[in-house]
Structure formats: structure tokens, C-alpha cells
Specification:
Number of strands: 0
Radius of gyration: 17 Å
Distance between the termini: 43 Å
């Protein structure tokens, strides 16, 4: 990702956002920082070769989730077999 970012003159975040958008994924990056907001808007199209490089990386690692709210809501929202909480209450109730 860093190599592609250097070649394109973009940040690694812009590379990932561009890659996701080019794949048809709706992305909603969160930021309160105006500079980050401007960077998130300043995306550019990646070459087919660069997209393939990023595709290959994701195929090697498999699905990776960077947000795991299980500790906050009391159940794993990514578990397809058990997609509802066991009890009908939040952990803070």
C-alpha cells in the first residue's frame, strides 16, 4: 500500500479509499480533521495493476475487520450464525 501511495503521490489512506470505491464499495470515512476530510475527498483512480496488487494483498490476508464493537454491544455482529444477542439487554443495563 505504501509503495503504491508513493508511486501515485497519495497517502496510503487515499489508496485504500480509491481501491474500495473502484470496487463499488460504499465508503464513509470518519474524520473531524479538515485536512483529513480534504484528503479523503481528493481521491484518484488507481491503475489496473495497482488495483490488482491491493486485491492480491486482501486475498492473502483474508477478511480483516478493524472495528470490533462486541465489547461495547455485548455480541459479535460479524458472526453470521448467531446474529442476535443472547439476552435482550445491553451490557450496561
Amino acid at each position: 500500500i505504501i509503495e503504491i501511495a508513493r508511486q501515485c503521490g497519495r497517502s496510503p489512506a487515499q489508496v485504500i479509499l480509491s481501491w474500495a470505491v473502484q470496487r463499488g464499495v460504499a465508503v464513509i470515512p470518519k474524520t473531524c480533521d479538515e485536512d483529513h476530510l480534504a484528503a479523503n475527498i481528493g481521491l484518484s483512480r488507481l491503475s489496473s495493476e495497482d488495483c490488482e496488487k491491493v486485491d492480491h494483498l486482501s486475498q492473502e490476508t483474508g477478511n480483516v475487520r478493524y472495528l470490533d464493537p462486541a465489547g461495547h454491544i455485548g455480541f459479535d455482529i460479524f458472526n453470521e450464525e448467531a446474529d442476535e444477542p443472547v439476552s435482550n439487554s445491553a451490557p450496561w443495563d
